[in-house]
Amino acid sequence: MAYEPVWMQDPSKLNKFEFVKMEKDGLDVIRDIIETYALRGYESIPEDDKGRFKWAGVYEQKPKDGYFMMRIRINSGIMNVAQARALADIAQLYGRSLMDVTTRQAIQYHWLRVEDLPDIFKRLEDVGLYSYEACGDCPRTIVGNPLAGIDPNELMDTTALVNEVNDFFLLNRDFSNLPRKYKMSISANLYNNAHAEINDLAFTPAVKEIDGEQVLGFHAHVGGGLSAKPFLAKPLDMFIRPEEVLKVAIGVTTLFRDNGFREKRHQARLKFLIAAWGVEKFQAQLEELIGKFPARGDDKTLGWQAAYFDGVHPQHQAGLHYVGLNVPIGRLNAEEFHQLADLAEKYGDGTLRTTMSQNIIITGIQEKHLDTVLSAPVLQRLTPFPKPFMSRTVSCTGNEFCNLAIVETKERARRVAEYLDARVPELNEFIRIHFIGCPNACGQKHVADIGLQGALVKTEQGMIDAFDIAVGGILGPNARFNTTLKGRVKGDDVPHVLEQLLLYYKQERHAGESFHTF
Ligand code: SF4
């Protein structure tokens, strides 16, 4: 029997994009792109379908003159060499060789034309990759532990679980019209490699004694998300066995689909439903839908490493290593990506892995090959041993390509990191700096040690780029968002202001104090 969502009962309250979604499912646009728009060109695309392009993983690029950006979903960030080469080929053929690693482990292209999209979809499908539903009001890329399967610090390998949940939701028309975007994470890493608290639904490692046996499983957290009103996900009082993860994911997503708010788009994320209901009511509704679960067990999240892996590290498998590379501000070119794929094939286990810190890992390298890998020309720029600030600077796309951006971010972030690396003496700790170009927070500013959010200020010369600065964000057991400081800093003054802030911190910090324990 077809479901009857609560929102269908009172259409007078819906925001106008709900009617666009009701008129035609977002997923239908994929067929229209292939059969119609790619043949007839950019001018043939109606405005409503441009909005639906997100379900194909495609956005219009700034300044809306015929070019598009596209995100490719990569489960847990893990891709094989054939997939990596296909991604690099697409960038070379259609995307001016530009490849961005996003904060959700996706690969993002720019400069695509609608005529290119059918071939890109096909090239992706040929290697088992998809851009579909990487954007839109649907279950998006499921982030996970990029070290899954090789991680000395994971409770279990979550690769297959992420794939299972992804395969269920991808192109599933029962869930292709949610109130708003919907983000999941599944990781059993003890250091929160998938940033659980900022997802709509997150699974984190847990253990519970059941019938005298220590059972490995998960805790679930619901209602996290950033943007203008950030929320940390709240834990449900449930212990979930690995084989029940999909059932819980279906239950939570169903509750969101049928009860999430569809009146105002800026209040439609799951976090607003959780805030309105309270987590207890949400859990009661969930258990009514999918049955009772045992109460929480022992939480196994020990801390947060912010998904940084730079350097050479031993794997779970004796004798093998992974090498975490720094991709400055998450941007590399297709030739570099090809060279990384070559290294992974020749000296590694044939996979590349993207991280939520916008970096890349090569895995499965034997001791005897480490020197060869480390001396590879491509690792001279994408170095495993980056300078401190360049290693910990994250940036969203900004106004170079993003229509929502207020300011430029990516190149500015690179210049700021270079400036600080040249000017700030050793701090004996890494300071994570995140830039975002608008309140949507794709660069996850709220969880940074220093978060910079783009804004404008009025000067005698007119409106110019500026930033609000916030300090002290952290996830993990002591999770909290950063606190915005008073005042707004002109874009050109950001390097100097951050330098002064860091020098003051270095001088004034107490013994044992770190940047997020003040
Ligand atoms: Fe665009 Fe804003 Fe997201 Fe940056 S944070 S990529 S400016 S929507």
Automatic annotation (TrEMBL):
It holds the Pfam family NIR_SIR_ferr. It comes from the Bacteria. Keywords: 4Fe-4S, Heme, Iron, Iron-sulfur, Metal-binding, Oxidoreductase. Residues 59-126, 313-376 form the Nitrite/Sulfite reductase ferredoxin-like domain. InterPro entries: NIR_SIR_4Fe-4S, NiRdtase/SiRdtase_haem-b_fer, Nit/Sulf_reduc_fer-like_dom_sf, NO2/SO3_Rdtase_4Fe4S_dom, NO2/SO3_Rdtase_4Fe4S_sf, NO2/SO3_Rdtase_FeS/sirohaem_BS. Transmembrane segments: none annotated. Residues 135-290, 392-518 form the Nitrite/sulphite reductase 4Fe-4S domain. SUPFAM superfamilies: Nitrite and sulphite reductase 4Fe-4S domain-like, Nitrite/Sulfite reductase N-terminal domain-like. Belongs to the nitrite and sulfite reductase 4Fe-4S domain family. This is Nitrite/sulfite reductase. It comes from Paenibacillus profundus.
